[in-house]
Amino acid sequence: MKQSLTLGKVTKFMGLGFLSTLKDLFTGKLDKEDFKTFLRKTVVPIASILLFIGLWHMGAKSLYNIEANHKIEKALTDQGQEAADALRACIASGESGCQPNTLPSPSQVWDSYKSLLRDHNIIAADKAAFIEKTAALNETRIAQGLDPITYTGRPSFVDQIFRSLKTVFAGFLLALFIAVPVGIFIGLSPTLKSAFNWFIQIFKPVSPVVWYLLVFMIVKTLLIGSNEDSSFTISFISVGLCSMWATLVNTAMGVSSVDKDYINVAKVLKLGNFQKIFKVVLPSSLPLIFTGLKITLSVAWMVLIAIELLAQSPGLGLFVWEEFQNGANDSNAKIIVAMFVIGIIGFLLDRLMLTIQNWVSFDKTDAI
Amino acid sequence: MSAIMDNKREASLVGNGLFPSKDVMLDLKNLKKVYPTPKGDYVVLEDLNLQIRKEEFVTIIGHSGCGKTTMLSMIAGLNPISGGNISVLGKHIKGPGPDRGVIFQAPSLMPWMTTLQNVMLGVNQVFPHASKAQRTDIAKYYLQKVGMEDSFNKRASELSQGMQQRVGIARAFAIKPKVLLLDEPFGMLDSLTRGELQDILIEIWNKEKITAVMITHDVDEAIFLADRVVMMTSGPKAKIGDILNIDFERPRTRKSVLEHNDYYKYRKHLIDFLEH
């Protein structure tokens, strides 16, 4: 039975159903009942986004005024009337040097976003030119058995996003490869469960910062003498260790709560351990394992920022920290840009996991 | 009335295990099941003796909670024996095994597998030396027998309960067990589907003649399918209360059974026992 794959089905499958309603609106396929769902599912979220931006704008404006008045007042008491007037004029003129430092407005954030993209384009062009220039030289160097020359310039914002994604995926895979097998063993054997339970209970609530320090202690020693990029290794291992617990606990629970009927079938057929695990236990606990993996990925993305900051790994976490330390005129706006980027990527990662989960799950009642 | 008297006499003989041992497939001797509870032991079954001959179809009826399912799962090896023993062809059973196929009350198909994969799961296990094509043929043959030839590649989760139980029947027969254990396999189905599945079961059984023990709550089902109907007393300490021989000729049709003179006599006998 061949079923057609429509946009509507795909978007629903990915948990992005509102997109297809939007499409129906433009193709004129909406009737009255659909229009109500359209109102609820598309218009209301858009209205709430606009409301949010409006409130943000007003809040930023009032914070701006408080900060500006405070600055002028301070100039007045410290340096006298003349300095205060000069500062007032400077602030009103919009000159960047004397602007009050507070919550940036939506338009400032948007401008920063555009300037970050411009910056990225400049750096990307620079990098491409460098690679082109050194291509011939690198070939001869490789032929001679020497290390090729690599670009060592400042990473752009987009580079940092990719660095963060790379770290989070490495950490996620580490968590997957530790937590799922261990979870299966713990779930299958009550003895192992009681042996490991204290371990899980004690280490699960440990803060990301402490995990980072622990990993740092160990990896620093292990990597003595190698010139590998230890900040990446340390941050992805820390991310993996922080985030694996949800998967570990969920896998163990899924495996130990497989329907008794399935286990009886496996017993009657005298399936070997390997067959029993791969044909019966694992498929049946996949939904719970995936719930765990979804939590793991979102936790990994959340702790990543703090860990990159500590590990000085040049990703989004370090970006936020450096902008904060930097204290330049548009630093605050850049931090907010990073905040939105982090949030949106986190959302997309969650959707990605949901899509994979629907893909592998056996309960396809309303999927494709 | 005399037919029933004869039946009773034979029941007492059978209970003492007087079949020639070469004819006996399944032998339950002084079987006992005890569940420990905080208030002391709860004895479910005690001194239960039953012999089932080769190629015999036996149905077991009794009130809910009398220990029928406990007994069946002990024969399957899924539930440990507290006392006495169970033997298949003279050999004591140790745990579950594919020589005793089970059809569970819930179809218990793996919902993530197709119907064919579900049947293959057992076939692969029992015929490891056959080629893949041969094993697939076996699985397909039994799926055809239960009328599922159009659904080899459907996932079990897409099938209705009745369809799933058909696959359950195919899975049990395909591993060619010595004994087939059926735990109220049609209890969850509506009466139309139930009749359909009874016909399928008896048709495939007529060909294979695998010794079968089936639990049921349905008196008509018990008579239609069985060579002997075993009645269990209510628990605790349940045992065999009575055994009724059903002397209809095989192969049977539902119509011929319902029109047979003895049918209502058998039915009354069973209902009298249950209402006593």
TrEMBL record, chain A:
Protein origin, superkingdom: Bacteria
Location relative to the cell: Cell membrane
Gene source species: Algibacter pectinivorans
Protein family: Belongs to the binding-protein-dependent transport system permease family.
Entry keyword set: Cell membrane, Membrane, Transmembrane, Transmembrane helix, Transport
Main localization (coarse): membrane
InterPro entries noted in UniProt: MetI-like (IPR000515), MetI-like_sf (IPR035906)
Name of the molecule in the record: Nitrate/nitrite transport system permease protein
From TrEMBL, chain B:
UniProt domain ABC transporter: residue ranges: 26-259
The keyword ATP-binding belongs to this UniProt entry's keyword annotation: yes
Keywords attached to this entry: ATP-binding, Cell membrane, Membrane, Nucleotide-binding, Transport
GO molecular function: ATP binding; ATP hydrolysis activity; nitrate transmembrane transporter activity
Localisation per UniProt entry: Cell membrane
First-listed, main subcellular location of the protein, grouped into a coarse class: membrane
Membrane topology type: Peripheral membrane protein
Pfam family, one: ABC_tran
Source taxon at top rank: Bacteria
InterPro entries to which the protein is assigned, alphabetical: AAA+_ATPase (IPR003593), ABC_transporter-like_ATP-bd (IPR003439), ABC_transporter-like_CS (IPR017871), ABC_transporter_ATP-bind (IPR050166), NO3_transporter_ATP-bd-like (IPR005890), P-loop_NTPase (IPR027417)
GO cellular component, one term: plasma membrane
Presence of the UniProt keyword Hydrolase in the record: no
Name recorded for this polypeptide: Nitrate/nitrite transport system ATP-binding protein
